[in-house]
Design a protein that fits this description.
The protein is an alpha/beta fold. The chain is built from 14 helices and 24 strands. It has helices at residues 22-31, 48-59, 85-88, 97-105, 124-132, 165-175, 191-202, 234-247, 266-274, 312-321, 339-344, 375-387, 398-401, 407-412; strands at residues 2-7, 15-17, 38-42, 63-67, 70-74, 82-83, 107-111, 136-140, 143-147, 157-159, 181-185, 206-208, 214-218, 227-229, 254-257, 278-282, 285-289, 299-301, 325-330, 350-353, 356-360, 369-371, 391-395, 417-422. A four-stranded mixed sheet has the order 22-23-1-24. Helix 1 (22-31) runs parallel beside helix 2 (48-59) and helix 8 packs parallel to helix 10 (312-321). The radius of gyration is 22 Å and the shape is globular. It starts with a strand and ends in a 10-residue tail after the last strand. The model has no long low-confidence stretch (mean pLDDT 96). The structure holds uridine-diphosphate-2(N-acetylglucosaminyl) butyric acid. Uridine-diphosphate-2(N-acetylglucosaminyl) butyric acid binds at residues 23, 26, 93, 121-126, 162, 164-167, 188, 192, 309-310, 332-333, 375-376, 403.
Length: 432
């Protein structure tokens, strides 16, 4: 297994480049199996989740080949409409195969994802929504077995409550090649979903209301393969902005390139500025200038354009460096605080109460041996190690590798003392 070893206290200086978006790439890859033929998607990050989803696509008969920064997906043959438990349990987004296979093959057998590291993440909206559009769905031995009537999904109308990224993607995948018209209300408007809708439109899908809460779809007989380019990763951008705020030199700008700050939503940008951090956006770059002292700013996560839940763990580290007390409340997932007990081991002063963690900043963290539990928790531990006194060992970083491309080389090129080591979890306690 791999771990990251960080000698804390070094300053972050220079330029960080944001990689292509993971959460946008996954629905784009699912969309690539809708048309017969070869689709090329440029700007796909080199990440574990992409490798896992490539396997999921291959099981159906499609071929997936990496070509430099992109993926070539040949969906001429899609003959086995299944996504097995072994792969879906590794990555919940494999559930996109439900909509994609219904669209392409008219039937699908996809494992239910089950729980995740921070509690239940239901898929009721995916299933009820697809039923409302005309799919027959049964649950059999942990699998969702679905089919559409002869001639294609009849169409219909469904309102999400709450708005869901994954369910919006699944319904659109199924509805594009349906017979009738479909209407999705309270649809997700996350940038990832808009980019996905743009790809469907470029393939010949008829969508109305992209980027609004109501999307209408008119089914078409077929879609055609295309070349398409993915967007930069908004959560990696937010992570880098927070890293610059906590580890940069006050008054000395850190440059972040390949950035699309509007994808972060105004809530995050406003909260960031209120900490005293100055930012300046210029085309696809943003410069971050940290203040002498960070102000403690409380945040509450919400569905886009609210403060992203995927940045709350990182914000906790910012609060630990701020001068005073503030809180993080997660309204999207009520129990996403697995990183907190690990951070206690580094001296974090904080209390968790329901879906709120109150952080008392201004006390130095100290290096310790800690363990990743999920993707965003992992990066928060790395960031804690960057600002801590002494050495931090972050174990089980396969979680981090799911969603951050070459994080340690990006950070070490900016002056952070961080490297990867292999270890055996049950032997050789770390030295120093
Ligand atoms: N929800 C339901 N029923 C459903 C589906 C969702 O009640 O059937 C609820 C969820 O429990 C949650 C809310 O709806 O409270 C929104 O969840 P959503 O369905 O939008 O989340 P998701 O599509 O499963 C994506 C990202 C997550 C990110 C969330 C929220 C991908 C692959 N995943 O998940 O990303 O946290 O949106 O923004 O795009 C990550 O990258 O670390 C990550 C977990």
């Amino acid at each position: 297994m791999d771990k990251l070893v960080i000698h804390g206290g070094h300053k972050l200086q220079g330029t960080l480049r944001v990689s292509a978006s993971k959460n946008a790439a996954l629905p784009l890859m699912a969309a690539a199996i809708l048309p017969r033929g070869v689709t090329f998607i440029d700007q796909i990050p080199h990440l574990r989740d992409i490798v896992t989803f490539s396997h999921v696509l291959r099981i159906t008969g499609a071929s997936v080949n990496r070509q430099r920064q992109g993926l070539e997906i040949d969906a001429t043959r899609v003959v086995f409409p299944e996504a097995p438990y072994e792969l879906v349990k590794k990555m919940r987004a494999s559930f996109y195969m439900l909509g994609a296979l219904l669209g392409r093959c008219g039937k699908a057998k996809v494992s239910l994802p089950g729980g995740c590291a921070w509690g239940p993440r239901p898929v009721n909206l995916h299933i009820e929504g697809l039923k409302a559009l005309g799919a027959d769905i049964d649950l059999e031995q942990g699998y969702v077995v679905a089919r559409v009537p002869r001639g294609g999904l009849s169409g219909g109308s469904y309102r999400f409550e709450p708005s869901s990224v994954g369910a919006t993607v699944n319904l659109l995948l199924a509805a594009c090649l349906g017979r009738g018209g479909s209407r999705i209300e309270n649809a997700a408007i996350e940038p990832d979903v808009i980019v996905f809708c743009d790809m469907l439109t470029a393939m010949g899908a008829k969508l109305d209301g992209i980027g609004t809460r109501t999307i209408e779809v008119e089914g078409v007989d077929q879609l055609h393969p295309i070349k398409f380019s993915n967007c930069p990763d908004r959560i990696e951008l937010g992570t880098f902005m927070i890293a610059a705020a906590i580890a940069g030199i006050p008054g000395d700008p850190v440059l972040i390139t390949n950035a699309q700050p509007d994808h972060l939503g105004q809530e995050f940008l406003d909260a960031f500025q209120r900490t005293g951090c100055f930012y300046k956006i210029d085309k696809d770059t943003i410069t971050i200038t940290p203040p002498d002292v960070l102000k403690p700013i409380s945040i509450t996560t919400a569905i886009y354009p609210g403060f992203p839940t995927d940045l709350q763990a990182q914000w906790t580290i910012l609060l630990s460096c701020a001068n005073g007390t503030a809180s993080v409340t997660d309204q999207v997932y009520g129990d996403r605080f697995n990183h907190i007990p690990e951070l206690y081991r580094m001296g974090l002063r904080a209390e968790v109460n329901g879906n709120t963690v109150t952080v008392h900043g201004g006390h130095h963290l100290t290096g310790a041996q800690v363990m990743s539990t999920d993707l965003r928790a992992s990066v928060s531990l790395v960031m804690a190690g960057v600002v801590a006194d002494g050495t931090t060992h972050v174990g089980r970083i396969y979680h981090l590798d799911r969603g951050y491309e070459q994080l340690e080389s990006k950070f070490s090129q900016c002056g952070i003392n961080i490297h990867r080591e292999q270890y055996n979890e049950f032997e050789n306690p770390p030295q120093g």
